Amino acid sequence: xxxxxxxxxxxxxxxxxxxxxxxxxxxxxxxxxxxxxxxxxxxxxxxxxxxxxxxxxxxxxxxxxxxxxxxxxxxxxxxxxxxxxxxxxxxxxxxxxxxxxxxxxxxxxxxxxxxxxxxxxxxxxxxxxxxxxxxxxxxxxxxxxxxxxxxxxxxxxxxxxxxxxxxxxxxxxxxxxxxxxxxxxxxxxxxxxxxxxxxxxxxxx
Length: 205
Description:
By secondary structure, the protein is mainly β. The protein is 7% helix and 50% strand. Strands 1, 2, 5, 7, 8, 12, 13, 14, 17 and 20 form a ten-stranded mixed β-sheet that branches. Strand 18 and strand 19 (189-194) form a beta hairpin.
């Protein structure tokens, strides 16, 4: 599966609507009771980017990015401004043996919770053992989200992390469309309409 570690850097000028999604099969029985089957153990997000006017420079950036990814062929990093941070997230408990821990984020509400694998952390994360930040003695794989210690954390000690992360995604179309709208006399820049462009989560692990 082809993937680029390049991030689609849209800032705030392109707009984005979307978030996590699940797949649930619902079977209704004769007495109208439902049986629900979870088809996705983790969420798979989808976002609509665009649906607004942008300048020529911004349009050229996204055209270049689309060409380089060859439409749906190559995945890439995406920052979901609605959910891109983790704070004091527990990723395991030391046992004097285990040295590798996968970054995760837990979403809890009441007595229910779900865990999401964090594959694409951003440089600058912090690692803690028993609440104490570890300034050395570990490395992070920014491609997989695996933290590896040089010495296994002690038995019973909580391993946690804080930092930012991206989401692995791909475009959901092989064709790109945009519309010339007008020429801004004041800024001397052409204005284009960028229709909604869908990106979908593309797990790599």
